[in-house]
Protein 1
Amino acid sequence: MPRQIMDSYGKYAAVTLTILSVFLHLLHAFPDGEFLMQGCPECKLGENRFFSKPGAPIYQCTGCCFSRAYPTPMRSKKTMLVPKNITSEATCCVAKAFTKITLKDNVKIENHTDCHCSTCYYHKS
Amino acid sequence: MSPFFVMSLLFGLAFGQTASLCAPSEYTIHVEKRECAYCLAINTTICAGFCMTRDSNGKKLLLKSALSQNVCTYKEMLYQTALIPGCPHHTIPYYSYPVAVSCKCGKCNTDYSDCVHEKVRTNYCTKPQKLCNM
């Protein structure tokens, strides 16, 4: 009987340790390309219901990508024509590959087939 | 393998499929001047994290303002000043830098920000390092 009790305690300990190690791994994961807590879905294909028709879905790249803003290093500031105090490194969810589709009235759109976090083009003000 | 063990693993894997939002994060900046003997390492707070963006299917159909993309940037900041050690008397030894108070997913303001894509690799010391004691 004591052996059975020890076995069951051992199983509970193993499960507890597994859950703990998974959470610790998630908490210490790097932000660049890794995902942590709930709140921001990854950059991937999603159906664009505005353009989609039955049997002819149109996909759009949507999701979250990493970016950061920090004080401009002194070395970089010296090379700037107009020195800026802050440097913003950013990536945005964009199509890595797409096909061109022509809708009614000769309207041309893109049907995204693959996504990735890459250069932002419409993020400046 | 017990079902409970497998469920715990699956729960952990499923829980890690989304990203942390844009928020203040710890960061170390390295400051050195040619005239000064030391490089100063300053522990500060910056804005870093994930922001929601999308790529339009019809870029030619929309105005540029409708193609907006948000990035993690400063919402509120304050400036702090640090003293670079080992500077001669004729050199101004002070260095002012922004500290993030709060962050947001918004536009990169080109009035005071250098908006880039690739990592800037100039944040390092070439001289002996000293830690900034704030």
Protein 2
Amino acid sequence: MSISETDRGLHRWSPHLACSSAGDFEMVAAVAARSGEQMQFMLLFSRQGKLRLQKWYVPLSDKEKKKITRELVQTVLARKPKMCSFLEWRDLKIVYKRYASLYFCCAIEDQDNELITLEIIHRYVELLDKYFGSVCELDIIFNFEKAYFILDEFLLGGEAQETSKKNVLKAIEQADLLQEPRHEYFNVPVY
Amino acid sequence: MTVTLCLFVLHQPMIRAIRSARTQCEERGVIQRECAAIRAQFRQADNGGRSHNLAKLLYVHMLGYPAHFGQMECVRMIASPRYSEKRVGYLGAMMLLDEKQDASLLITNSIKNDLSNSNQYIQSLALCTLACMGSAEMCRDLAPEIDRLLRASNSYIKKKAALCAVHIVRKVHDLGELFTKAARSLLTEKNHGVVHGAVVLITELCERNSETLERFRKTVPDLVQIMKGLVISGYSPDHDVAGISDPFLQVRILRLLRILGRNNEGASDAMNDLLAQVATNTDSTKTVGNAVLYETVLTVLDIKSESGLRVLAVNILGRFLLNNDRNIRYIAMTSLQKIVGTDHNAVQRHRGTIVDCLKDQDASVKRRALDLSLALVSASNIRSMMKELLSFLSSCPPELRSQTASGIFNAAERYAPSQRWHIDTILHVLTTAGGDVRDETVPNLIQLITNTSELHCYTVHKLYRALLSDISQQPLVQVACWCIGEYGDLLLRGECQETEPVQVTEDDVLDVLETVLQSHMSFPSTRGFALTATMKLSTRITENVDRIRSIVSIYGSCIDVELQQRAVEYNALFKKYDHMSLLFKRLMHSPWLNTDLKLMQPSTLSVFSVVATVTVYEKDGVTVTLSCEKQSDSGLTVTLTASNSTESDIRGFTLQAAVPKSVQLHMKAPSGDSLPARGAAKVTQMVVLNNPNKVA
């Protein structure tokens, strides 16, 4: 089977990343011939820099993901409260917003609309809020897989798949009902 | 606190245990134990608790610990008939497997099966996973399935299939062809999710292939219709966000319109009215409205829009600049930057607001404002803009200083209203941000000063005063030293038309140069300038030549080799030549100017800017003279002529030359090696020097 141009492009250097790292590994942060319009990843992290959710829409090794996460978390946490929600980081645009103790951080590309990305973040927070009932960081810690399921019902491949809040929540509800019951189930507080 | 009948609580005790660890070491201990337990569970037969195990592992992975041993478990879980297990299995696949892992190929078959599952939520899992981490190979394999789903399934699946197709096209461009027809028909559906997916897919197809783009231009009227429906329609509770109906869809349609209208009059015309409507009617009091307006503006500015519409768009950006929300100001400037070349006058109207943004607290906003301000400088506003820019320079964040200084220099060079203003501006920058200017600033400034002969007196006064107050900014000190060396006599004259003259003595001037020489703040190159200047003054002053000699001879034993060499050469010159003025004569408009500072090469056969014959050796009847002829910007030919005035012939006469490493030397063959007596004939030898780097 022949390797497509796309696969070859995966091994292209991204000059910004190459300069900033110690140059000891290849950074693959772009697929060949990007159109410049995609959410590359979304990160949720606490004020202490602890990662609570990471969704990657581009192929990167674990090592690369860790490096990006570390640097980006540091950069965002260093920002002062009244600063812009947008910043340029490497060759990406970062859109972030803080909700209580959690930072929601998206990396988008050149052609993407920063303001609508803020709306996407907000929509996701609203979904979490509706689902958990006044969501807080602990909900996302102890029910992280739910946070992912909700995200995956809202965004697909980095794009919004359903623009109606109601429909997303309905779908999650239905999917939850499909969960097979165990013989023993627990009537316990969540935390 | 809520009590939840949640079947996923089973991994929560582990999370609690991890969180209660007090140190990193303790946490690692807990993790190790848990991972061992998880591994053991993986090896066991199906016990109904597999999904919780994998969930535990995923949590551990998110904390940053290795979890690759769970990859195969993901593959197994995905193949399970149980929904809970599939769900976590697919989640695990998205987290632990990426297309680089071999294991990812193993799930292709499961995905294929699940895509045709009768349960849409299972189909959904497969679609989501494929769209998230599907490799090119997987995409090629499954593309026909996706196409099938695009045509014949319910809205829930269609919208997901559309976005899955987007991913496939991104991975394997050629497959775009496959989805074109289906994408077209999806536009006619009522479901917002499906239409949104269709718009995203069409956008992707058009951007990959210009033929496809041509074909999809026909959809412009349909897109306009859909937009109109969203903009004019009454309140639609399902999709409303702060009074805007489905802003996400609106933004995507606007972006697609942009791509279709670009470079195409017909398409641009067809969307003109709609864009005007959206631009005028969208409520801009909330971010969401501004998001739509922003996309509208970007579209208007990118297509072939009517001039009225363009003005409308730029005005929206102007309003954005005045918005209280810093985010809005930021994106306004980003957009204005894109059009400052094409719509210069329109952007100029907002110059005041842009310049105000230089004072914003946020460094990103400042950076944008700087870029725009520099682009807006023109002959008519140079004076006021420069005031702002210089003021910005003195307080801007360090990472912006270099760019600001360069920008100021460029602007000054292009639009300086007078030479005095130009010199003043450069001096101002050197005083404020001397450490951040580029290397060529010094020779450029020297060139400028030299060429502005009517201001020599003014300039040397300004620089002298600058030196008196601060000798830390190296470029400024270098230029000042050079200037004093060249025009020091003007200082001593005690009169000046353009500025208040100083009343100084020769000693005062030499004091200043000596301070620079002795200061620990001075770079070696700066010291070189100061030493050269001191030497030059020996021809411009009358009383203190001895002092100069003593300064120079002190540096004859300086630790810095460059300086030492320089000083030794100068000393030699002192001793041998009375007509020093020839060597140090005032420089006119010479192309050698930029290398003037390197004029005094630490070699007797230095590169002089003077084209004259100089006697460089006279002893025991042998005379050697030297004359130079400039060949090019960096090349010089030196002709050495030797003659013998003694009574007897001299045989075996050779000349040797030494130059610094950066200068290339090529000695041609001499005309002979014996000097006949009584000057009967001369021996000449040509030396070609090349000073490509123009370094000392």
